[in-house]
Predict the structure.
Amino acid sequence: MSDFMRWLYANYIKPEVAKADRRGYEAELSSMENGLEPGYAEDLDRALEFYMGNAFLLGVRTGSGLKQELSGPLH
């Protein structure tokens, strides 16, 4: 992942995810955040950084494609 994506993850994506509504996922998220040994918790953080960064980029690419699709004639 590029330095920019690491910065974006740390300064935008991760804080937004931390503010997200967790209703219905409290037990699972708590178990992942508090039930792992420190080494595994660090691995989880790195995996989340990778997947969230790539999901963000997918959203950007998808949104860009939708703009073109929506501005064209209806099928």
